Amino acid sequence: MTEKIVLDCDPGHDDAIALLLAHGDPRIELLAVTTVVGNQTLDKVTRNALSVATLAGITGVPFAAGADRPLLREIAVAADIHGETGLDGPELPAPAFAAVDTHAVDLIVETVLAHEPGTVTLVPTGGLTNIALAARRAPEIVGRVKRVVLMGGGVAVGNRTPVAEFNIAIDPEAAAIVFEAGWEVVMVGLDLTHQALAGPEVRRAIRAVGTGPARFVDELLDFFAATYRDVQGFDAPPVHDPCAVAHVIDPTIVRALPMPIVVETAGRHTTGMTVADRRGPAPQGCRTHAALELDHTRFWELVVDALRTIGDPATPAATVPADAAALAATEQIA
Fold first, then answer.
1. Under 8 Å CB-to-CB from 254, ≥6 apart: which residues?
2. Which residues cross the membrane (predicted)?
3. What percent of the chain has a predicted confidence (pLDDT) above 70?
4. Confidence band of 112 (pLDDT split at 50, 70, 90)
5. Catalytically active residues, by annotation
6. Other Cβ atoms within 10 Å of 210 Cβ, number
7. What pLDDT, on a 0 to 100 scale, did the predictor assign at position 50?
8. Which residues are CB-contacts of 116 (< 8 A; sequence separation ≥ 6)?
């Protein structure tokens, strides 16, 4: 069985890797890709998504641009981490196709309504503006979506502020709508993603794949590692967004626990905080969950295997050899 997903993203270095994982893992059926302002402006992140799709040979999947600003607040991008293009570092190919004319919010709604209830998972890896607008525009999708698995927030960690993670902080009102809508929400936050470090052994395994997309990821991680070291003091960069896709693929790799979570929208010092109640067992019927524990080895094996499956756009994936060096490097991930 495959998991049908809509990936809502703002590429972004880690969003690009999330898109490659969603495309390359056979357990994911990528129904649509939508973009939202976040790591950079909407025009930039949309072009980035199309360029990554071109690099990876993604075809037959609609891409649609969405919200170009938060619901109420001013645009706040992350050029300090992702650069002026949103994907600084590697050379990006010109997109081979354009986004569809449909607005991302409409595409999300249409996609959910076109499939059986309980079969489509929404995977937002940027701000939650598009998802909130979709829930408000067509409330009937809330009961049809299987779940929302988002990268954002944190139980005990912030990065945009001491208590707020970037994706939630840039549009806390949208995040509050999503968390309170009534569908199942899995928060794959910083508590989890700060465990997904791309250290030297991970980088060796990625390089050993030897394909164009793998080299692209390695070059992404060069830039990402430098900005995370300079801005946040990490020895190796945490690669956040693929963790949300990995939870959909195999929740034993990205493990989550039920707990009540609400988003603070009015605190003087705490706006954007995801307030998780861990005082006791989650109440019966709790619909919000937080991912807290990552199987680091198996997570990076997913990413490396997806890159190997993708192969090179000009070469069918089946003809790209899973050579002994690549296999050995994968086995050494720890």
1. 188, 192, 243, 244, 246, 247, 291, 293, 294, 295, 299
2. none
3. 94
4. very high
5. 240
6. 17
7. 98
8. none
CATH of 3-331, picked from 3.30.70.260, 1.20.120.350, 3.40.50.620, 3.90.245.10, is 3.90.245.10
- What average pLDDT is seen over the chain? 94
What residue type is 317 in one-letter code? A
Output the six-digit token pair for 170. 């840039």
Task: Retrieve residue 255's tokens.
Answer: 């493990």
Residue 203's identity, in one-letter code, is: R
H or E element at residue 20: helix 13-24
Q: Which of 331, 332, 326, 309 is nearest to 21 (CA)?
A: 309
Structure tokens at 259: 């707990």
Q: What is the pLDDT of residues 247-266, one digit of tens each?
A: 999 999 999 999 999 999 99
pLDDT of amino acid 322: 38
Alpha-carbon torsion (17, 19, 23, 26), positive or negative: positive
The CA radius of gyration of the chain, in Å to the nearest whole number, is 18
8 Å CB contact between 19 and 33: yes
Candidates 302, 5, 8; CA nearest to 152 is 8
Q: Domain limits of the chain?
A: 3-331
pLDDT over 70 at 318, yes or no: no
Decide: pTM greater than 0.85. Answer: yes
- Number of other CB atoms surrounding residue 91 within 10 Å: 7
- Classify burial at 250, counting beta carbons within 10 Å of its beta carbon; exposed 0-12, middle 13-18, buried 19 or more: middle
Question: Crossing angle, helix 129-137 and helix 172-180, to 10 degrees?
Answer: 50
Q: d(Cα 245, Cα 243) in Å, to the nearest integer? A: 5
Query: Which pairing describes strands 185-188 and 145-151: parallel, antiparallel, or unpaired?
Result: parallel
Question: Per-residue pLDDT tens for 212-241?
Answer: 999 999 999 999 999 999 999 999 999 999
Read out DSSP for 239-279?
--THHHHHHHH-TTTEEEEE--EEE-SS-TTTTTBEEE--S
